[in-house]
């Protein structure tokens, strides 16, 4: 599983301070599932964001904020769902601290894409 930021595509867009980090399957896991469901990969690739893009840093800062954690707790999720989401917070904090320790910075993730075609039966 990989954490990534997902931009809302509705007409209203994102509200200021609204978190949009989501968990996603790795590309190979997703393609394996698609193939087992009768799809084949026609094309695939990766989009690499510019080095200066800071979206990954901003999203990580939001997820590690107190307001994010309070927001999760206010959603009415089950205890298991809250624990599942909040379990990532210390992992992200630790990763950010490690990057800072070695003089690196949080970057924005690459985006993998694929065109799938339904296999003939």
The major sheet is characterized as: 2 strands, antiparallel
Distance between the termini: 31 Å
* Share in helix: 40-55%
The helix/strand class is: alpha+beta
Shape: flat
Query: Please, how many helices?
Result: 5
Summed over residues and divided by their number, the pLDDT gives a mean of 84
Global Rg: 17 Å
- Tally of DSSP β-strands: 4
The percentage of residues in β strands lies in: 15-25%
SSE pattern, N- to C-terminal: EEHEHHHHE
- Largest sheet, spatial ordering of strands: 1-2
Unreliable sequence segments: 3-11
GO molecular function: methyltransferase activity
InterPro entries: SAM-dependent_MTases_sf (IPR029063)
Protein name: SAM-dependent methyltransferase
Keywords: Methyltransferase, Transferase
Please give a structural write-up.
The structure is a single chain. This protein has helices spanning 27-36, 55-63, 66-73, 79-86, 88-101; strands at residues 2-5, 21-24, 39-47, 111-118. The strands form 2 sheets. It has a two-stranded antiparallel ribbon. The chain has a two-stranded antiparallel ribbon with strand order 3-4. The chain has a domain at 46-120. It has 121 residues and is α+β, with helices and mostly antiparallel strands. It contains 5 helices and 4 strands.
In short:
InterPro entries: SAM-dependent_MTases_sf. With 121 residues, the protein is an alpha+beta fold.
Keywords:
single chain, 121 residues, alpha+beta, two-stranded antiparallel ribbon, 5 helices, 40% helix, flat, disordered N terminus, SAM-dependent_MTases_sf
């Amino acid at each position: 599983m990989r954490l990534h930021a997902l931009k809302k595509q509705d007409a209203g867009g994102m509200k200021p301070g609204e978190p949009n980090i989501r968990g996603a399957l790795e590309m190979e896991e997703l393609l394996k599932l698609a193939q087992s469901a009768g799809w084949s990969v026609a094309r695939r690739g990766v989009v690499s964001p510019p080095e200066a893009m800071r979206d990954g840093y901003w999203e990580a800062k939001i997820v590690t904020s107190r307001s994010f954690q309070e927001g999760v707790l206010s959603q009415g999720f089950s205890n298991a769902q809250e624990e599942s989401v909040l379990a990532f917070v210390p992992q992200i904090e630790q990763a950010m601290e490690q990057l800072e320790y070695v003089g690196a910075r949080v970057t924005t993730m690459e985006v993998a894409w694929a065109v799938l075609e339904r296999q003939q039966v």
